[in-house]
Amino acid sequence: MTDHPLKPETKAKLGQVSVATLATALFKRGLRHQVIQDVRPLSPKGNNMVGPAFTLRYVPAREDRNQLVEFRNPGHPQRVAIETCPPGYVLVMDSRKSAAAASAGDILITRLMMRGGAGVVTDGGFRDAMNIAKLDMPAYHSRPSSPTNLTTNEAIAINEPIGCGDAPVFPGDIVVGDDDSVIVIPAHLAEEVADEAVEMTAYEDFVIEQVQNGATIIGLYPATKEENLNKFAKWRKANNR
Amino acid sequence: MTDHPLKPETKAKLGQVSVATLATALFKRGLRHQVIQDVRPLSPKGNNMVGPAFTLRYVPAREDRNQLVEFRNPGHPQRVAIETCPPGYVLVMDSRKSAAAASAGDILITRLMMRGGAGVVTDGGFRDAMNIAKLDMPAYHSRPSSPTNLTTNEAIAINEPIGCGDAPVFPGDIVVGDDDSVIVIPAHLAEEVADEAVEMTAYEDFVIEQVQNGATIIGLYPATKEENLNKFAKWRKANNR
Amino acid sequence: MTDHPLKPETKAKLGQVSVATLATALFKRGLRHQVIQDVRPLSPKGNNMVGPAFTLRYVPAREDRNQLVEFRNPGHPQRVAIETCPPGYVLVMDSRKSAAAASAGDILITRLMMRGGAGVVTDGGFRDAMNIAKLDMPAYHSRPSSPTNLTTNEAIAINEPIGCGDAPVFPGDIVVGDDDSVIVIPAHLAEEVADEAVEMTAYEDFVIEQVQNGATIIGLYPATKEENLNKFAKWRKANNR
Amino acid sequence: MTDHPLKPETKAKLGQVSVATLATALFKRGLRHQVIQDVRPLSPKGNNMVGPAFTLRYVPAREDRNQLVEFRNPGHPQRVAIETCPPGYVLVMDSRKSAAAASAGDILITRLMMRGGAGVVTDGGFRDAMNIAKLDMPAYHSRPSSPTNLTTNEAIAINEPIGCGDAPVFPGDIVVGDDDSVIVIPAHLAEEVADEAVEMTAYEDFVIEQVQNGATIIGLYPATKEENLNKFAKWRKANNR
Amino acid sequence: MTDHPLKPETKAKLGQVSVATLATALFKRGLRHQVIQDVRPLSPKGNNMVGPAFTLRYVPAREDRNQLVEFRNPGHPQRVAIETCPPGYVLVMDSRKSAAAASAGDILITRLMMRGGAGVVTDGGFRDAMNIAKLDMPAYHSRPSSPTNLTTNEAIAINEPIGCGDAPVFPGDIVVGDDDSVIVIPAHLAEEVADEAVEMTAYEDFVIEQVQNGATIIGLYPATKEENLNKFAKWRKANNR
Amino acid sequence: MTDHPLKPETKAKLGQVSVATLATALFKRGLRHQVIQDVRPLSPKGNNMVGPAFTLRYVPAREDRNQLVEFRNPGHPQRVAIETCPPGYVLVMDSRKSAAAASAGDILITRLMMRGGAGVVTDGGFRDAMNIAKLDMPAYHSRPSSPTNLTTNEAIAINEPIGCGDAPVFPGDIVVGDDDSVIVIPAHLAEEVADEAVEMTAYEDFVIEQVQNGATIIGLYPATKEENLNKFAKWRKANNR
Predict the structure, then answer these.
(1) Which of A58, B17, B43, D44 would give a disulfide with D179, using CB separation of 3.0 to 4.6 Å?
(2) DSSP one-letter string for B30-52
């Protein structure tokens, strides 16, 4: 899928930084549309979702192809996606930004969790959202949506490049979600972006501390005054960062 | 209003199933647009709202007909709706999918609760939402909206067929809400749909348990493998379902 | 900026009334669009935000003017706004109703709080929203938005008249937010509106109590029956209102 | 329906003025939302549509009530509306601002024309729009929409107060359309508004002529300079206005 | 691609009927979402576009993959689509319902025409629309859009199932466009639907003639009165239909 | 206002190229959002609008500040904008992307034309659009809008940086409109972009001719095959381009 598998140390780094920081790191590289727009966690988890993307694409449902009997087909792409998404991956669904019907429900998402999925994202909505919210796996959507996915969505293809919330998602891209939102990092950039974001986070943590102590942001954020860089150097030593 | 009053045992059954399950039961019958789109509970209640629909219809407000003095009229349709909605009914408001101004506020909704209302739904928004959220009666809307309803809405008619969140609502239809969303069941289908949903829920509860124990969904959900039906038969006995 | 500074006693009164009540008081005066549409508190605070408006205006970002290096400029309007917003004021941002990129993040908003800001409102979204939610200063937005503001927004002007969520905001207008929403009171009306809202709130509190005890709203809300005004007079005495 | 039938001379006056001028005349009277938003003529007619409103209300279609067989029912409200709309009236349809399916097609609209209808307006869309555009009766909609109305719309009620394009429409209100848009004049105001609009139009025609000859608008539009009123008096005489 | 190639006689039939009539024929078969929503012809052609679908799918553009240099790649999917779309086919583009940037421009669409394309449809917009409008090949879009497609769209895949304007489109489906809109007929239904639509059109033409002569629609449309069927039989003979 | 006045020869060049070509030239320079989204000419003029931007900014109307009497004030910013926009300039209005009420009407736009204005653009709508369409000056908007601008818009500031249709517009930027849409060229880039666009247009005209004669676009557009550059060189000579 990709020549850039996610290294454990990169994954660990991406677990400690915010989506906002990652968005800035990608902005520096000219990538401005990697945040998945208008999705939110079903419940705040307090820690990050991190994993490579495994994708599912929906098209508008044609009624004759989307009766309940379709689910009896073991080859139905939605079910196959759930059963073949590799452990540690994030399942990302292109639901055409519509929550008029569901992208999936609690049974499938529980199965994904049991199989070791790192999380799930749709730019539509989940049914049984109140149950999915309680699972030990992060999930992001636009809003709860109770109608079965057959009502408006046909699962058509697995692991193709897709759009999700107006962000481009290629299989194997690294997906990171925090309690605010979700970002998609091109696989080949994950390592350098993770490194840079860890550095940025150290500085931001230092800045927040300074600001909480009354410092002005001028000259501090960003660090245009030499003295702030010196203070930061000391802070890093003192805080083992 | 309807020849299909809600039986207590049907009401009880509808209290135990999810809107998602009911949506699938209606989908089987060719009804695909019965979920009220884009409304949410002001606060999760942990149990279902169930009751026949009593409706209120708004039209865009014409300024000369919608000054504060109108509320002094004891025949104002909004107030009449609150005072005549039968106990056990759900008041459903067609606010033209706009939360630019309120559909109602905490005084009226408290009165509705005191009169025995089973709940309230608008495809607009409530003012004093922070107070309505604390009431012992479920309420659903799109988002909080503080301007008085006179600003954009004129209450014009009571207990007519309406649209609410793009769902058709006929007086007497059975309205069910859970912590995710709200669905409208045509009155004549309520009993059979309730029965079927209880059966579906038993199977879904069994499936979730299987999946939590590591089962694949293929052949299980839906049950295309004989063995799963056998397991389910045993599970029902063991669990008194 | 305005000839109508906010008096401490007016501020105190505005702290005790709801945005809904204020919206009705302004509606009586012919002002129907003063509620900022589609913003919500990042976290409920349980008490009101009150302060005069200090404004920041964004225009769509032109890429050559909005690289990260811009933030090194001590004169960048976004940073200047944070560092010059007077203590006790509410910073109101015109983000063109778009949360595609952030209006600001936790470092700047923490700084605003440390400088004595009374609160912050944007009709876009904040990044680091999960952190801003925990601050001791109220903040309102449309939804979390992680991309840096440079992505789509250029901070262009400070303390001009702006639109925010389709409401007109003039510097010095009095901004009040509760756990539902935010309203903008023209400065010259703040005192009389505060007085009237306190009176209205007394009556509404009385009404809620009556309704909770089983009273009908007809003749009570509004008070078209003499007896209710008498009851209210007694209630005020008994409750020191 | 209304105590204010449309007098022939009022109708004649309304035929000579623009919707823009009428909107200003209603604005003076505090009515700000009488223009039907986002509708346009299927073809420019070069003269005004004028007539009292006869209304048809749609609700979202429930599939079991909206099969093609319904059209065989002579009492189907859509067909009844076409066959009972009085000659000289404008049929105004509340299609819930959705053109996902049609409000009507060329056969019905041709029949309406043959029966003497003054015009037709929907805030949805017409099918066979290319044919309706060629009829000798004005028609206004949002955009062409080919699916049969049964797909999403159920005609439910005739001659009730409705909303159309966010404007309130009461049966008997006077509807005026020009090549730009459509406005709804409350029946009791039609006469005085028509008179005033004719006066305003005379002045506007004078102003346009002055401006085409190089005059500034300051002092002229509106007429704050005495000399312009004098010029206008002469112009009226010279032009028999 | 499909086992149901478009027969010349079916194509001829589909050339004589309206999209509205075809929509009703599909509605009878339970297919309610086959009209491509919110697209319109760049110029009315006065005759139908008919051909099997050849599809192109766009995803949101990632900046590093969408620089102008990409167009130098002879394998760029947009250009390959233009150069491989079979003669007689309609190129249908999934542009994610966004006209923020172009789907294609006049050079590519002219090339498509020269290669024998039957037409082109996008749910986004064309650049150089004023030129494409003058071509001898029908084109449909949402609105003109001048930015190069690289700005927001990456052409990613050819001849996959896609969504276009919320309609499902499978390669080989038969696409028909008239001066109002565009519909997608599943390939296996094209023949029977064409036959039925020709019959329906004959009756509709008869009805329009009757209505123009003063007939009521009750009993005529649909034909619930025997006498109308008799009249129609005569009319067919007289008109060779 | 700007240090880069529009030279007559640059203006002439910009009159001969399309907005699409200019958009590509700006895209090469990293500017991707300079096309004003969702505006269209009131009538096609067949030639380009070109001129520096003079801006007018609207905020949401507060009712007490926006009564008809305001127009009697000779200092009302809307009227001042019309009377002070320099000859040859394009008046660009930030109407907050709303056509709920007008940005201006035919009297003011006629006056602008008489004063030598090069054109007018709003991201809202014009009233009297049917008359403005006939003027000898190009005008662009979203759709006709008959309500007076006071209904929702207050003209607040002249010649500030604004947003218009999500494009940034700085006073003095060069605005170019064709029959498709409108683009904003930063003043300092106008000359080089004009030069480049003229070159690009020559090549595009050559390409269209080749394609009309049956050439493939591969290797031709863009010119990756040497032979096409040679052909182009001959074509230029032959055609004096």
Answers:
(1) D44
(2) T----EETT-EESS--SS-EEEE
